[in-house]
């Protein structure tokens, strides 16, 4: 590459790429891992890292940290992506790694971006070469390690969790990008504090998108060299709320627990977060139906009808209008009296069935029976509905809540009555 090639390449690189840290001194955030004296920093500086998985939200520095390691290590560095990696690709990496170790006494570091995208059989093929030290693995993922990476691979690696960048770190990076004469905007532009505060907030810790918005805002200026709030708002049309699998599970958990706890405002908030982030509204409706039966149950049987009506509204009316029907169902469930007696009844019955033999159906209630007496016509009829071995077993215990309170009273009449 000649000088002119370098100039052209650098000129057309996005600001976010030009500002990518080249060393640990330029790396902002993650002080819990990379602050002075921290274990991971010492391992990197002494070139003695072991296999690790870097887990964290988008643009928290996983790939950048791996790139910095590649520049500081004496090991051979390979970078691959888990989306398209196959077992045969890994075998080739392992073969080269063994050759490098045998011929040049040089270790191999394999950086696997999007490691969660690897199929389980490909992950399994990593186990022996990580365990025997053929390669040092650095995996990077935005997703849940518990859900997306097989436990044997996790057990062979240290897991380092990176956090979303905080406002102070974001502001330092953005101001450095404005001032840097080589990699940044060269001090040609300023920014109001109001615009800076908004940008640091709206990007939700994603510095890459913040830098893209800053660059767009700067280059869109005409009669001013100062970036103001309106310019940033136009450059950043909507708040970043895309969610990873981990976020999805956490928000779903928060939503469900809010429904169960009758915390209406919390449930509405998490509903809004999920809808704004693009979660399928039918998925949300399925969770609402579950809670209508599991947590409200017979205390307010209408909750199931409301929940199913919300599902029908999503299918019939569609979004965004159906959000009102979903919100109505959420409020109804939160404000309803609660009873999990039905939930306990069916689970208790299933457990009993699993643990006991399959008893015969009593003669009175078999198909085609001649001994059955209709209890509606004959209220004093004495049919045998359960096998003798099960007759004393009680599965349904109504709770003294809402509509179910009437059933509770029936089951708990004083002995004198």
Automatic annotation (TrEMBL):
Gene3D superfamilies hit by this protein: 1.10.8.60, 1.20.272.10, DNA polymerase III clamp loader subunits, C-terminal domain (1.10.3710.10), P-loop containing nucleotide triphosphate hydrolases (3.40.50.300)
Entry-linked SMART domains: AAA
GO MF, any single term: ATP hydrolysis activity
Ranges for domain AAA+ ATPase: 48-165
Keyword Nucleotide-binding in record: yes
Family: Belongs to the AAA ATPase family. RarA/MGS1/WRNIP1 subfamily.
Protein name: Recombination factor protein RarA
Organism of origin: Paenibacillus elgii
């Amino acid at each position: 590459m000649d000088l002119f090639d370098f100039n052209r390449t650098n000129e057309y690189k996005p600001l976010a790429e030009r500002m990518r840290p080249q060393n640990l001194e330029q790396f902002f955030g993650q002080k819990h891992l990379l602050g002075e004296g921290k274990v991971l920093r010492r391992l990197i500086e002494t070139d003695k890292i072991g296999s690790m998985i870097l887990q964290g939200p988008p643009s928290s520095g996983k790939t950048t940290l791996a790139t910095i390691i590649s520049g500081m290590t004496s090991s051979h560095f390979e970078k691959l992506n888990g989306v398209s990696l196959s077992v045969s690709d890994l075998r080739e990496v392992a073969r080269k790694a063994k050759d490098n170790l045998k011929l040049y006494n040089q270790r191999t570091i394999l950086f696997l971006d999007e490691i969660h995208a690897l199929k389980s059989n490909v992950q399994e093929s990593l186990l022996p070469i990580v365990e025997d030290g053929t390669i040092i693995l650095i995996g990077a993922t935005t997703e849940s390690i518990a859900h997306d990476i097989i436990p044997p691979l996790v057990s062979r690696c240290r897991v380092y969790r990176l956090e979303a960048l905080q406002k102070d770190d974001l502001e330092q990076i953005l101001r450095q990008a404005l001032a840097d004469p080589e990699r940044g905007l060269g001090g040609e532009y300023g920014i109001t504090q109001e615009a800076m505060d908004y940008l640091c907030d709206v990007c939700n810790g994603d510095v890459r998108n913040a830098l893209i918005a800053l660059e767009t805002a700067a280059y869109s200026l005409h009669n001013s060299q100062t970036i103001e709030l309106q310019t940033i708002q136009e450059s950043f049309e909507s708040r970043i709320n895309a969610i990873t699998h981990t976020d999805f599970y956490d928000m779903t958990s928060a939503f469900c627990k809010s429904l169960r706890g009758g915390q209406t405002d919390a449930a509405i908030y998490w509903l809004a977060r999920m809808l704004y982030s693009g979660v399928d509204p039918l998925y949300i409706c399925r969770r609402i139906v579950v809670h209508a039966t599991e947590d409200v149950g017979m205390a307010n049987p209408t909750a199931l009808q409301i929940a199913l009506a919300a599902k029908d509204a999503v299918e019939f009316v569609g979004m965004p209008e159906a959000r009102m029907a979903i919100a109505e169902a959420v409020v109804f469930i939160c404000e309803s009296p609660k009873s999990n007696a039905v939930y306990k009844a069916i689970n208790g019955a299933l457990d009993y069935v699993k643990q006991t033999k399959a008893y015969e159906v009593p003669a009175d209630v078999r198909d085609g029976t001649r001994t059955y007496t209709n209890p509606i016509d004959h209220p004093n009829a004495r049919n045998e509905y359960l096998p003798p071995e099960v007759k004393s077993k009680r599965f349904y215990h109504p709770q003294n809540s809402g509509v179910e309170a009437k059933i509770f009273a029936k089951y708990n009449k004083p002995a004198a009555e």
